[in-house]
Each structure stands twice: as structure tokens, then as C-alpha cells.
Amino acid sequence: MRCQFKGFFFALLACLMFDFFYACLKRARRICSESGAFTKADTSVLANIFHWMGIFSSSLIAVFATAHFGNCLVFVGSGMLAIGLLVRWLAVQLLGPYFTSDIAICKNHQLVEAGLYKLIRHPYYAGAFLAYSGAGLISRNAMVIALLNISQLIGLYLRIRSEERLLNEYFGEKYGKYCQRTRRIIPYLF
User: Fold this and answer.
1) Where does the chain have alpha helices with state H?
2) Is residue 190 assigned to a domain?
3) Distances (CA, A) of 148 to 15, 133, 152
4) How many domains are there within the chain?
5) What angle do the packed helices 123-139 and 142-171 form, to 10 degrees?
6) Nearest to 13 by CA among 76, 48, 62
7) Is residue 176 within 8 Å of residue 168, measured between CB atoms?
8) Residue 116: HSE in the Cβ half-sphere, 13 Å Cα cutoff
9) Is 187 inside a domain boundary?
10) Over the stretch 68-122, which tens digit does the pLDDT of each residue have?
11) Per-residue tens of pLDDT for the chain, all 190 residues
12) Residues 6 or more apart from 35 whose CB is under 8 A from it?
């Protein structure tokens, strides 16, 4: 049985288009940089390498791979993909002008603690992981699922670490208290 490459391809395309759309939108508006100087954290080139390595290598494997699991994973993966993209969209809406594709602090930056940010510190990254995991499930191939999830976990871990370092420097004790009340990615767990 062939891997569900078409579905996997379109799922990855949806994730990537979401990333591209918001990166372009925010770069064009540049609310952050127009309102004054901003501080950038280490943008973690290594995090981006893991992100793209996982996408491209799993795509190559999906072209030639055999599906190991039944069609039900396509439906589960599609649901995860849709929920992940919705979570990412909500996270961007809640951050408003403070969302950037770079790890940055804007002038007069405020710590957002409402909505999804009341439960977890990084809903945008949680949504990304959920969406890419869904894309992996759509492939129905164990190697694609593992490779995509492992590469995304490593990339997100590196990016979150860099972002939290910057937020802690900027907000200090306020961010420390926020960290005590919330989890990074999974509410009440992690």
C-alpha cells in the first residue's frame, strides 16, 4: 500500500503557507520596528535547520514510502492539522502587534496573559507541533511520523528556549511568575 503522499503534501503545504502568510504579513507591517528599536534574541539557526530538515526529509520519504497504518489516521491527522492551524491563528490574534516571525521584543511590549496564553506560554508553537504531527499522520508512514515529530520537537525546543531567555530578561520577575502559573506547550503538563 502506497503512502498517502498527496494528502501529506497538501497538509505540509497548508502548514507552510500559514507560516509564510504570517511571516510576510508581519514583516510588511513591522509594527514592532516602526514604533522604536527592538531587541532580537538569538534566532536559533539550529532550530530552523531542524524544522526544515524534518519537512524536506519526511517529504522525500513520503514519496517512496509504504503506508503502515490504515486510513483512519488520515482523518485523525486532518483533524489535528485543522486544530493546530486554528490554535496558531488564535495565538497570533491574541498577540496582535507583538507577534513577529523573529524572536523580538517591541518597544512598550506587553506580556499577553489572556486567552490561550492563560493556560500555556507558547500556543503558537503548540499549534505548530499539532499541525505538523497531523501532517505526519496523514502520510500513514511510521518513519515520516517519527522524523517529522522528532525534528519539530527539537526545533521548537531550541526556539522556545531562546524566546524564554529573552522574555525573562525583558519582563524579569513578572515573566517568572507567569512561568510558575503556566506550562510551555501542554496545559497542566509541560
Assistant:
1) 5-29, 31-34, 45-64, 72-95, 123-139, 142-171, 173-181
2) no
3) 13, 7, 6
4) 1
5) 170
6) 62
7) yes
8) 21
9) no
10) 677 788 888 888 988 998 999 899 889 888 887 778 887 788 999 999 999 999 9
11) 455 556 666 666 666 666 655 555 554 445 455 545 455 555 556 676 666 667 666 666 666 666 667 778 888 888 898 899 899 989 988 988 888 777 888 778 899 999 999 999 999 999 989 988 988 888 888 888 888 889 888 888 888 998 999 999 999 999 999 999 999 988 767 6
12) 97, 106, 107, 108
User: In CATH, what number is assigned to the domain containing residue 18?
Assistant: 1.20.120.1630
Range of the domain at 159: 5-181
Phi/psi at 112 (5° precision):
-85, 120
Cα–Cα dist 150/51, whole Å: 10
